[in-house]
Amino acid sequence: MTASAPIEVDLALLGGGGAASLLLAALDRHGVRDLRIAVVDPVRRRGQDRTWAFWGHPDSDLDPLLSASWQQVEVTTPARRRVLDLAPLRYAMLRSGPLYDRAAEAERRLGAIRIVAPAASVVDDATRVVVRTGDGGIVRADWVLDSRPRPPARPGRTTWLQHFRGWWLESDRPAFDPARAVLMDFRTPQPARGVSFGYVLPVSDRHALVEYTEFSPALLTDAGYDTALAGYRDLLGLDPAGLRVREVENGVIPMTDAPFPARPSPRVARLGTAGGATRPSTGFTFSAMYRQADQVARALAAGRPPVPEPAYPRRHRWMDAVALRALDRGGVGGPDFFDRLFDRNPAERVLRFLDGVTTPVEEVAIMNSTRLLPMIAATAGDAAHRVRDRLRPARPAPAIPAAVVGGPPIVGRGSAAR
Ligand SMILES: Cc1cc2nc3c(=O)[nH]c(=O)nc-3n(C[C@H](O)[C@H](O)[C@H](O)COP(=O)(O)OP(=O)(O)OC[C@H]3O[C@@H](n4cnc5c(N)ncnc54)[C@H](O)[C@@H]3O)c2cc1C
Q1: How far apart are CA 162 and CA 40, in angstroms?
Q2: Which of 132, 285, 351, 405 to mutate to test the pocket of ligand 1 (most atoms within 8 A of CB)?
Q3: 148 CB under 6 A from ligand 1?
């Protein structure tokens, strides 16, 4: 592309990662044709750069792409191991490679133009949006869907990160139960401020993704993640001598009540983490991205503006702000919080709540399962903090840090491929 050849499209996607891939797949699925689309991203996403775990109803169009799915999951605390039957939902694992391939196939069928350059500036005059790209090009679009990573609009009252490292482990002998995933295992040593847990996503009796995750304000060091993950491997009773680490996955996801404005201007909507699709209390993002992709595709198929509904209802964002505050200020212990949630509600209700699709009556039941006094204290603290925020001059929010990526871990006798 050259600066002298502006590209005219109906829809420009800025960012071609998770949210955009799900959207391209949804446009294809809904039979949207004759729409001029441009995808702007300096990187053409391919291969395995992340593994998505999410729950949902079986038989979605993603089913053929899944590496595994489980009807049962475990939630374990130092006190007990609980096996949850998720019916009618199921927990599923989608590796990024198959989704990026599906999106590339959809992109071809939709005749989309791919611009391998960063979007540098976006100007919306309410009738058209002009995007200038880093290679000097110009894209003029009726609508822009922007999923470029960005910090929130202002600092949150609680700013945590979900940060993790996972090892794709291969074992010499059967070591995993492929019928069951471990959703959260809180037997890991708990950080002074924050929550930690391990989880296991088996794809066969010899292969699994084993992760160590923290919800806390700051990242660990490279060695810190390896030590924590090795500790969790030992807790699972896995023999390091019989294991090889085939791949390593690192990530950082914001967990904050800071705002991610989803509609920055009349003809621009934000998708994915940048648009608020990351659930503040859990970091889960995938289901909201999938739901919003479907809404946008349906809207375009019906000739309506491609603007999705908010990722989560306002009352859910408020409940998350209170829960995050209670966890951060030490009023509530993480393992205890999740233990009570799963103890006092059917698993399916908790999972639908975390996806933001429960009814107010169900939400009262969820709230009743938490400890009352710390939650009241956190609610009052949240309200006071909101008032203080209104009186303070606006400050920029810190950027979301990049994941810590280190050298090959010292585990078992294998080496890691990255
Ligand atoms: C390792 C990892 C594992 C995760 N696992 C889960 C999970 O199991 N379940 C879950 O629900 N969520 C998970 N998440 C969170 C979330 O689902 C993912 O981060 C998801 O990829 C978010 O999609 P996105 O489109 O918002 O961002 P991304 O997928 O990160 O895509 C953003 C895109 O923007 C592009 N970009 C950057 N700058 C520019 C620019 N200037 N112009 C144009 N493009 C630009 C990037 O190259 C990238 O392709 C995970 C996240 C990570 C990092």
Answers
A1: 27
A2: 285
A3: yes
Integer Cα distance of 143 and 110 in angstroms: 16
What digits encode the pLDDT tens for the residues 261-272?
999 999 999 999
Query: What pLDDT is recorded for position 3?
Result: 52
- In the 8-state DSSP scheme, what is residue 261? -
Q: Give which of 262, 264, 243 is closest to 171, Cα–Cα.
A: 243
pLDDT in tens, 320-344: 999 999 999 988 898 999 999 999 9
Q: Report the separation in Å between the CA atom of 162 and the middle of ligand 1, taken as the mean of its atom positions.
A: 14
DSSP secondary structure letters along 203-224: SSSSEEEEEEEEEESS---HHH
**Exposed e or buried b for every residue in 111-146, given b needs 16+ CB within 10 A?**
ebbbbebbbeebebeeeebbbbbeeebbbebbbbbb
Q: Whose CA is nearest to atom 47 of ligand 1?
A: 43
What is the Rg, in whole angstroms, of the alpha carbon atoms belonging to the chain? 22
270 lines ligand 1 (CB under 6 A): no
Residues in the chain: 418
Q: Say how far apart CA 99 and CA 168 lie, in whole Å.
A: 19
Alpha-carbon distance of 346 to 90, in angstroms, equals 14
Would the CB of 273 count as within 6 Å of ligand 1? yes
Nearest CA to ligand 1 atom 28: 17
Structure tokens at 219: 């990242």
Q: Are 414 and 240 in contact (CB under 8 A)?
A: no
Write out pLDDT tens, residues 338-369: 999 999 999 999 999 888 889 999 999 999 99
In this prediction, the residues of the chain whose per-residue pLDDT falls under 70 are 1-4, 407-418
Question: Which of 73, 147, 162, 278 best tests ligand 1's pocket when mutated (most atoms within 8 Å of CB)?
Answer: 147
